[in-house]
Write a structure and sequence with these properties.
alpha+beta, 3-stranded mixed β-sheet, 7 helices, rod-shaped, 274 residues, 5-stranded antiparallel β-sheet
Length: 274
């Protein structure tokens, strides 16, 4: 009996140990499965997270690109509306005017390859010159970006018409300032005809200047044919600086009354006195 009982006890112990081992294995496997599932979920979340954030990042990138495209739009080289505010622009204009011995009688000096803005109108100097040439019947050659164009850049004076202006007084003010900056005092009636009714030397310069200017209509964006009709703030007067001021530089003011003008050409008569 004793022997049989011992055998029974051994079997019971073995069975219990086996059950415990199996239970532990099941628990371990369960834990491993749980850990695996949790880990996989975390990895999935980590992988999905950048995708969810990528949309606003992409949108922000698109907005930045769009803003850059807006900023990249060409700004007018010279903005008349900013002349009283922009110190750099003011200095640029002062430096350019100084070259021609003027200060206030012209608003801007613009290169032939520049654009400028007045109120809400942006104008290309090249387009104004092209229209003026076609109106005169000249052949227009376009050499955009060529070395020839760079070498042929000229400067033009711009005057914005104000209320009460007339073309004669605008020209006369330029002459008065030009000579005053050379310490030459010009009579305020120097542009008036003499007692015989003949044009004075200054008057002849003013008449000649009318042939060298362009009246441009800012509303119609066209050349105006009648230079005597100049509405305030809707028209500008464009001066060919090289032609007008090269003429003035060649004239000794003491000889200004010897000037002759036939409607097209101006010259100084030769002094025949001995």
């Amino acid at each position: 009996m004793t022997k049989n009982n011992n055998g029974f006890l051994k079997n019971s112990k073995n069975d219990n140990s086996l059950k415990i081992i199996i239970s532990m294995i099941v628990i371990i496997l369960t834990i491993l499965v749980i850990v695996f599932v949790v880990t996989k979920d975390k990895q999935t979340n980590i992988e999905e997270q950048p995708i969810q954030k990528s949309m606003p990042q992409q949108k922000e990138s698109d907005e930045t690109t769009y803003k850059k495209e807006i900023k990249a739009d060409p700004e007018p080289t010279i903005n008349y509306n900013e002349l009283g505010k922009n110190e750099d622009l003011k200095k640029t204009m002062q430096d350019r005017k100084k070259k021609y011995d003027i200060k206030n009688s012209l608003d801007m000096i613009v290169d032939s390859n520049e654009t400028f803005k007045i109120k809400n109108t942006e104008i290309s100097m090249a387009e104004i010159l092209k229209q003026a040439a076609l109106k005169r019947g000249d052949v227009v050659e376009e050499n955009i970006g060529s070395e020839k164009e760079e070498k042929n850049i000229k400067q033009y004076g711009i005057y914005v018409v104000r209320p009460g202006d007339n073309i004669w007084n605008i020209h006369f003010n330029i002459l008065k300032e030009y000579y005053s900056l050379q310490d030459i005092s010009m009579n305020i009636k120097a542009d008036e005809p003499n007692k015989m009714g003949f044009s004075s030397g200054i008057g002849k310069i003013l008449k000649f200047s009318e042939k060298l200017v362009i009246i441009y209509n800012l509303e119609k964006l066209t050349i105006d044919s009648d230079i005597n009709i100049i509405e305030p703030l809707t028209k500008i007067i464009v001066y060919n600086m090289s032609e007008i001021f090269s003429l003035l530089n060649e004239i000794n003011y003491e000889n200004v009354e010897r000037l002759q003008f036939d409607g097209k050409t101006i010259w100084i008569t030769t002094d025949t006195q001995t």
